[in-house]
Amino acid sequence: MHLFSLNRIFAVMEKKKDIDVAPRQEADIMREKAENYLVCFIDSCPLRESCLRWVAGQYVDPKLMVRTAINPRNPLMGVEGCPKYREKVCVKMMRGMTRLYHDMPGYMESGIRNELIAHFGRKRYFQMRKGEVLINPDDQLFIAQVCQKHGWTAPLVYDGEEEDWLW
């Protein structure tokens, strides 16, 4: 792998723990995501302040009578090493791959596309391609490795980028 490719991959994978998100903006995002996310209400957990599940749980609509959440009676939950712990880390996510193949030769494009579909599945691949699903750093790395394997050495061009938590 070329040095400039590795540098780009590592730059993409750079994690940002403290980002400048206005409190109202963060609250709106958490409220929206908490609707469909497995949350935690274990206030005695030593990891709660840095756990995305607990933080999102603070934004659950209090009017709900029934809500899917982590079982607080399970002895594995709410302790160091909790299997459902999700670190509240904001990372650079890419959106859309419609421009990924613009400068590639056709033979390279089809090989890369076929391998990505085989890995992600047809539905998820096209959701990622259209920008319906954000591309996380691990998937970005995989895409870069597949492109490198097929001989593409130029920087990858995505449709956009944004910072988001690893839900």
Description:
The chain starts with a helix and ends with a strand. The protein has 167 residues and is mainly α. Helix 4 crosses helix 5. It has 2 domains: 3-13 and 94-160, no CATH class; 18-88, no CATH class. Mean pLDDT is 86; it is low at 1-7 and 9-23. The protein has a 3-stranded antiparallel β-sheet, covered by helices on one side. The protein is built from 6 helices and 3 strands; from the N terminus they run αβααβαααβ.
What is the fold's blueprint, element by element?
Layout (H helix, E strand, L loop, with lengths): L2 H10 L2 E2 L6 H12 L17 H6 L32 E6 L10 H15 L1 H9 L6 H13 L10 E6 L2
Antiparallel strand pairs: 1-2, 2-3
Helix pairs in contact: 4-5
